[in-house]
Write a structure and sequence with these properties.
There is one protein chain. With 248 residues, the protein is an all-alpha fold. 79% of the residues lie in helices and 0% in strands. The chain is built from 13 helices and no strands. The radius of gyration is 21 Å and the shape is flat. The model has no long low-confidence stretch (mean pLDDT 88).
């Protein structure tokens, strides 16, 4: 029994090591943490990655093998057919594998052939966001939202809100976040809007936003509350912070 448990833990540790060594975004920071901390480090890495909506989810070993096979076929199709669809598929596979540089190039090739392809715009914006090229992501998302305001059931809307926030465009971000909260009810939008209000010293408005968010999440179905557990913790932490005497 103990030997089986050790085998499973070691296998999980190796899996996480392989994943973070293949992803250019985490290779320099997470690899040594996972390597030196063994199972605890691997577990923290796994939870951190899975809790980030705009981060590539961890690919299982079997899925990785499947993706490599799909990548081979997609490259051939892109080379010999070379239409927007083929480059879009290639970009999607590269993105799932964590190869952001090549994914960005593939989406750009797709857009060069179909500049208003909504899925290519979404892929290009997602990659740009992950690479912290927020101005590039903003351009793609602005066009995408003009073409399809409801793209991926509001995913484009919340990503645009995050881009505006990271660019420091507070006025535009505030307006868009209010629209996003009204249209889609993304809890992350409320967090971002509260942060802007806190920055502008509108602590009363921020407090009301956070209290309403926590109340909604508390009264929501169990699966929804669990899905946004991290958001609830962040909202509660922010609420405690603005309740301190230094904020008054």
């Amino acid at each position: 029994m103990l030997a089986t448990l050790v085998f499973i833990i070691t296998g999980f540790w190796i899996w996480m090591l392989i994943d973070c060594s293949q992803d250019k975004r985490t290779r320099s920071s997470w690899f040594w943490i996972v390597l030196l901390c063994y199972f605890p480090g691997a577990l923290v890495y796994f939870v951190d990655r899975q809790n980030k909506p705009q981060t590539r989810k961890i690919v299982s070993p079997l899925r990785h093998i499947q993706l490599k096979q799909e990548l081979y076929r997609a490259r051939i199709a892109a080379r010999h057919i070379g239409k927007a669809y083929q480059f879009l598929i290639l970009g999607n596979i590269l993105l799932e594998l964590g190869d952001l540089d090549r994914a960005a190039l593939s989406y750009q090739r797709a857009l060069s052939k179909e500049p208003k392809n909504p899925y290519a715009l979404w892929g290009a914006a997602s990659v740009a966001f992950d690479r912290k090229r927020f101005a590039v992501a903003a351009r793609h998302l602005e066009l995408l939202l003009k073409i399809d305001p409801k793209h991926l059931q509001g995913d484009a809307s919340i990503l645009y809100a995050k881009v505006l926030f990271n660019l420091g465009k507070w006025s535009i971000a505030r307006s868009h976040l209010k629209e996003d909260i009204h249209d889609w009810g993304h809890p992350e939008s409320t967090i971002l809007l509260a942060r802007i209000e806190i920055q502008d010293r509108n602590t009363g408005i921020a407090k009301k936003l956070l209290e309403d968010l926590l109340s909604k999440l508390k009264d929501s179905p169990t699966y929804h509350a669990r899905r946004h557990q991290q958001v609830s913790k962040e909202a509660a932490s922010m609420l405690r912070s603005i309740s301190l005497p230094s904020f008054r």
